[in-house]
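agent> Task received from the user: take the single chain below, predict its 3D structure, and emit structure tokens. No templates, no multimer pairing.
agent> Plan: (1) validate residues, (2) run structure prediction, (3) serialize to tokens, (4) report one or two observations.
agent> Step 1 OK, no nonstandard residues flagged.
tool_call: predict_structure(input=
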Amino acid sequence: MDTRSFDDTPISRRLHQLADDAEGDGVTLDWILGQLHERAFGLFLLILALPCCIPFLYGIPQIVALPLMFVSAQVLLGRTSPWLPARLGARVVSKDGLKSLANRAEPWLLKIEALSRPRLGLLTRPPVDRIVGGALVLFSMSILVPLPGTNTIPGFAVVVISMGLLQRDGILVLVGSVIGTVWIATLIFAGATLASLVKGWLGL
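)
tool_result: status=success, residues=204
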């Protein structure tokens, strides 16, 4: 692949380029990671999170949820480039799945790109980005909650934060963080309410 042409491509088009470059019927997460050159953390987080926030896209979210949490933890720990252990890196994403993901995500990424610009860059650089990494871990963990539809909102939060990191836009990072935090608070409130109702039914 021509690295310079890939790096100069708008983010909204990079998924299409990845799908076009994929050989065979599917590629591993390690292969995808190997195609990312500059700002690999932001791009890889974006690619992993997108399937989690697109409705009616099945299969890929289950593949990427755990790697998403693992990579988010590396942001928290201050690593300069993402890494996956062999078992996670060997997970396969179909070429058709990548193409479907690229087609569904492109309109939304174009809208975010149109709104974003470098601002509040402090939130996208060390050491503040470690705090953002902690939030990403929490949001990624909530994607793993085994309830229908629970992956969409936190997935969208991670996408917005990832775009903020890529575009050096601290406002996007803040917006994504607020969305994810409200979601976590909603889960906690709903869980506490359900537990209270169950206790009342059981007379505890």
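agent> Step 4: summary for the user.
Residues 3-202 form one domain.
agent> Done.
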